[in-house]
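agent> fetching stored inputs for the 5-O-phosphono-beta-D-ribofuranosylamine docking request
agent> found them:
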Amino acid sequence: MAKNIAVLVSGGGTNLQALIDAQARGEIVNGQISAVIASTPEAYALERAAKAGISGYVVARKDYPSSQAMTVALVDKLHELNIDLVVLAGFMTILTGEMVQAYPNAILNIHPALIPSFAGPGCYGLHVHEKALAYGVKLSGATVHFVSEECDGGPIVLQKAVDVLPDDTPEVLQRRIMEQCEWKLLPQAVSLFCQDRLKVEGRVVRILPE
Ligand code: GRF
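agent> prediction call returned; pasting tokens
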């Protein structure tokens, strides 16, 4: 049975687009993006979903009295849609423990740095690249990892590095990492998950052969 995938978004949705394009090329083996859930009705990602014929939903923090109530509503929605894999692709709302408990080792996140560098609370968006440039690293990249209760701390699935160049601005580095790392890694990781080829052993993820 093909796995049902939900992609959770907050913004532009270029990673969602990479998944949609990979699916159109037949590269998401044994998986189907069946829902896009946004944290705000303004997310451009919802338009990308609509164009691809994928159902879009909004679950917004402001409509609930607490983060926990919002997370529970989100989990209910995911269950109602029979979702097997949740992909966080630039989802900016904090989720509480109920989410990981409902989907243990079945939530993937993309982070725009080589974890454990430039990760954890406060490391999101352009801040990640500002910190990498300020530290003076010569390589940065992206990481796809399973989501655990520790922020950016779950088992690592795939990583890819790019050079940091002398004249990089945070925006230029961000773009290079998106194009060369994120948009490639996320579809690969999703496809591996859908084929049951990710075996989690403690914090280590083994990639099983086809
Ligand atoms: C990406 O940089 C991703 O690594 C981070 O949020 C950003 C989302 O961008 N988690 P987009 O909405 O996919 O364009």
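agent> quick read of the result: The radius of gyration is 16 Å.
agent> awaiting further instructions
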